[in-house]
Amino acid sequence: MSKKSKQYSVPATQRTASKPPPLPAPLSQTDRGRLIIAGAIAGLAFVLYANTLGHGFVLDDALVTTLNKYVQRGFGGLFDIFTHSYRAGSSVSTDSEYMYRPISVAMFAVEWAIAPNSPGFHHFMNVLLYALTGGLIYGTVRKLLPEQHHLLAAGAAVLFVAHPLHTEVVANIKSRDEILSLFFSLLCLYYYWDFAVGKMQKKLMPALFAFFLALLSKEGAVTMLLILPLALYFFGKNTSPGLVLRQSVWLLLPFVAWVFLRTAIMGGKLAYSPHINDNQLVAAAFSEHWATGFSVLGKYLQLLVWPASLSWDYSYYQLPTVGWSDPRAFGSLALHAGLFGYAVWGTLRRQIPAFCVLAYLISLALYSNLFILIGALLGERLAYTASLWFCLGIVFLLLKALQLPAATSGSDSITSLLVGKNAKIAAGIIGLFVVMMALPTIRRNADWKDNFTLFTTDRHHAPNSFRTQFAAGEQLLLKFNENKFSPDSAAWLNEARQCFERSLAIQPTENAWNGLGNIAHFQKDYVGAAGYYRKTYEMKPDNAANRERVINAYRELARQESQVKHDNAKALEYLGAALSLDPNNVQTLNLLGTANGFLNQHKEAVAYFEKARAIEPNNKDVLRNLSIGYRMLGDVAKADEYAKKAGQ
Q1: CA end-to-end distance (rounded Å), the chain
Q2: Under 8 Å CB-to-CB from 216, ≥6 apart: which residues?
């Protein structure tokens, strides 16, 4: 049989099935143009935050990285992350037991498995996700408003990525939850639009899944239940309110699933009562609560319009509690009432600025403290989502003022951004805004390099916050400890003292008193140290560490009086004060015995030594002193007995 005859033929059906699948349709010129523009916006965002890639763990980053046992298990910690509250794996107690945000923590665990204890990798992921969000903003706005000038979507996106208010979100690793929440919310809106308006049924499941991920990233994504239907109503063609509701009802599926999952894991915990140090409104009267709440809303607008001075903290008492007689409260109320009134009027006419106002107000509603109290009076990160609608509204008003055409012909491209009457002028103004915001963003990023830089900088940005002042003092004291022989060490101590004193003037706390005590101790001012430590003990007498600090200060004073000033009588006074705080402290009892011995009060000395021995029978210092004491009393037998026990 020939070689040719040995080869079996393949049936025709099998030959047909083995053909490679058809290649996907090439991108249209419009899609290709949009990808290029979105990529350019993402590139701009990455460049603006590239100087954070070398930063370390800052602020509360450690709670989701170096202090979190679940994160440090890598892939092995994922189950615990998804079945526990936010930061449950942290070794430091937090107030996050009412939060369920597993997505960002799970990402940190995966990143830790790839590059353990690498802040640079976490920072890279933050910047990358932020850049992708910028590109997604452009694509989403173009999808929702295809008939508007191309500059609207691009302008809103570049203003968003350049805004300095976002530095906390991107430069603080922990704030990944904010980035993910907005990213998945936009992804939901992007796909849901194709489903509801484009009649693409296959896009429903990706949209719902994206919304579910947004909710698992941060609870604030729940506002999409209102914002998405509003987008369909404002921008969809021929959409009645009834149709919008029918189209939007699918969002309830991931929402109900999230509520069920969260309830099962969290046991129904929804919120908590914040401490006054975090949110002073817990102690405010009803009228002050609302007046201060509107004052804070005005502060958010001010930070969006003019973010000249930013801070990681705005807690007690950076923003004062005010009443309705305060112009900030009444002025903000009038402004927001006017915005809301316009939004209602504009809703009937489906005006784009009205949508932006409503979306902005809805995004801030959960964080306004008007309806529920949260764990912060104000936070830059809390305005992250709202700032998107602010940027969109500002760019729309600019294009409207310059009378740009509603749409330009041709496909999306870089050049299409400049087509139309006054388009180049509008692009120039937007570019100027971007430059004006980009420079402060890059400068502000540098402040987030490490805790020392951030805290010592922001004590000037938020001078009335007890927390910024204390944190700066703590970092300066730590700097002194690490570099005691530096020529700047004395200056660090003096500045730390100023910070702690300023913090105490705003809100007395045991930690600030303790900081002053530490400074006095380093400066060998033991009288001052004892006084400061005594304050901490009086605030929390059940705290063993506070009591021990006071005792140590009294003992140091006793040593100083005895060894330097040779005043053993005064030393006895300080040691007696120390003993009153802890009558069974062996070290204090031993020192009291020694001081009495120097005063030739050997009977009293032996009594103190015996009490110390009863507590610690094998303490050799006490046994040696007992030997000396009994010898001075003439009891040679006991003296020899204790000398033998002491190993002499």
Answers
A1: 108
A2: 100, 101, 102, 103, 258
d(CA 610, CA 605): 9
Q: CB within 8 A of 403, min separation 6: which ones?
A: 421, 422
Helix/strand/coil (H, E, C) string of 248-259?
Answer: HHHHHHHHHHHH
Longest dimension (CA), the chain: 124
Chain centre to alpha carbon of residue 494: 29
Asked if 461 and 309 touch (Cβ cutoff 8 Å), the reply is yes
Tell me how far apart the alpha carbons of residues 222 and 185 are, in angstroms, rounded to a whole number: 9
Give 116-164 pLDDT, tens digit per residue.
Answer: 999 999 999 999 999 999 999 999 999 999 999 999 999 999 999 999 9
Closest of 440, 401, 348, 338 to residue 155, by C-alpha:
401
Q: Which of 464, 577, 579 is nearest to 531 (CA)?
A: 577
pTM of the complete model = 0.90
Give the mean pLDDT of 13-35.
68
**Token pair in block for residue 561:** 């009086």
Side-chain half-sphere of 455: how many Cα atoms within 13 Å? 24
CA angle 150, 156, 158 (to 5 degrees): 100
Q: What is the DSSP letter of 524?
A: T
H or E stretch at 477: helix 466-482
Q: Tell me the three state secondary structure of residue 506.
A: helix
> If we measure between CA atoms, which residue out of 444, 439, 442 comes closest to residue 309?
444
Distance CA 288, CA 281 (A): 8
Q: 133 and 183 in contact (C-beta within 8 Å)?
A: yes
Instruction: Give per-residue burial for 185-204: e unless 16+ CB within 10 Å, then b.
Output: bbbbbbbbbbbbbeeeeebb
Structure tokens at 499: 């910070």
- Rounded CA separation 420/403 (Å): 10
Residues across the chain = 648
State whether residue 4 is helix, strand or coil: helix
CA angle 163, 168, 170 (to 5 degrees): 80
Q: What is the SS3 assignment for 436-499?
A: HHHHHHHHHHHHCCCHHHHHHHHHHHCCCCHHHHHHHHHHHHHHHHHCCCCCCHHHHHHHHHHH
- Centroid of chain to Cα 618: 51
Q: Which of 475, 505, 443 is nearest to 309 (CA)?
A: 443
- Report how far residue 217's alpha carbon sits from residue 181's, in angstroms, rounded to the nearest whole number: 5
- How many angstroms separate the CA atoms of 410 and 407, rounded? 10
The helix or strand, by DSSP H or E, that contains position 368, with its residue range, turns out to be none
Q: What is the pLDDT of residues 613-628, one digit of tens each?
A: 999 999 998 999 999 9
Q: Tokens at residue 139, please?
A: 């694509």
State how far the Cα of 232 lies from the Cα of 204, in Å rounded to an integer. 14
Q: Cα(326)–Cα(551) distance, rounded to whole angstroms?
A: 48
**Position 552, amino acid:** N
The letter for the amino acid at 596 is N
Give 68's strand partners: 90
Tokens of 293: 């709440």
